[in-house]
Amino acid sequence: MRTYQKQLLSHPLFEGIKEESLSAMLACLGGYLKTYEKGEIIFLSEEPVKSVGIVIHGRIRMIKEYDNGDVSMLMHIQQGELLGETFACGSFLHSKVVFQAATSSKVLFLPFHKVIHTCNMTCGFHHRLIENMVRLISDKNVQLMEKMEATSRKSLRDKILTYLFNQAEKHGSNEFEIPLGRVELAEYLCADRSALTRELSHMREDGLIDFEKNRFRIVK
Length: 220
Prior knowledge:
4-stranded antiparallel sheet, 11 strands, about 25% strand
């Protein structure tokens, strides 16, 4: 755990936590580190989620599987982001989605009940930790709203443009790199991959965008 101490201190969840307090805090909370290979399942649908995860390294897919075999990719959880907090802090602790490692990943887990309840030691970091957790949960809700905004558009072109405009706003530039490959982007937009590839080509021909692999530029 000490290997990742500096990385953890820069994480928004630990904002305001002093370096000398971090080791004691993780011990108090019962934090533990787990490693996952690409494709390995972290939580299955309907599995109880009692801990909040912080992606220390790698990338995690949050996907929804349906009875007819269809799969919808809800979001990719990047390095430094939280996973499982929606279920761990709710009334129903069972996951409604599948969390799967998109790449080789390391995740730090913190039992949620220990995060939000002050311990007998009345550790000074607890109140700050709770404030940080609430802010991060709010940020995750914004990400889900962005996905809803994109997928609710009627045409595939509008779905793509909405996603790209959101990415441009995050990067503060009309030229940026997206974190998703074509298959993942198609899953995210609830679209067919071949149709997505064709539409991207048409949008480039129409002078709307330009791109090279995952590098995009909004022309107009």
